[in-house]
# Entry
Amino acid sequence: LALLSVALTWPLLFLQVTSLVEVVCLLVFFGRLTHFAKVTLRNVFWKDTKNICIMVAILLSLTDLAIYGVLRIYNVKSIRWSRIVRPIFLINFAESRQIRRAFRSIRNTLPEITYVFLLFMFSLLMFSLMALKLFGERNLRTAEGLPYFKNYLEIVFDLYVLVTTANSPDVMMPAFDFSSWYALFFIAFVIINTYIFMSLFLAVVYNNYKKHLKVMFGGVSG
# Structure
């Protein structure tokens, strides 16, 4: 009975300890923000969006923690939705200048890789449509006995996974067992999308990220 009681109370005790640690961390963050507000001009402090982001994140976290605690008292299950705002603390503190620079570089790189990504998606959708026409009407079955390449969205997902080669060669075996010539379809897909498009995508991401990172390091500190 004693062991059972400990086992039942352990999750609640763990939640209390973690909540206490979270409150302490939030108080430390709030103390840092208050100290910075005292040593900074008021108009300068409120014009800095980093300070506002930290303040909003603290308020959201405390509110979520209070709601979660009240619901736990009444044995109502809930989700800690404020956890998604925790990266704000990592990005917006003064010691995180390099992280902010890297984040800006990623943000500035995204528009420039959109065209390559759209071309890749177009190729994936076209190959999926070809696979539906080639295999969908032949009543093929997978090793588990499920219909093979009957649903277009499932085909898109399977071929997307094939780009990573995670499901190779399993995804092509039903077609290969029906006719070995169908292997040419998957070989062409892998060459175009895995080797050409992924290499091109990686090159564009790397070059643009490096360019924006040089601009950030050569410009004004964030």
In short: DSSP finds eight helices and no strands in the chain. The radius of gyration is 27 Å.
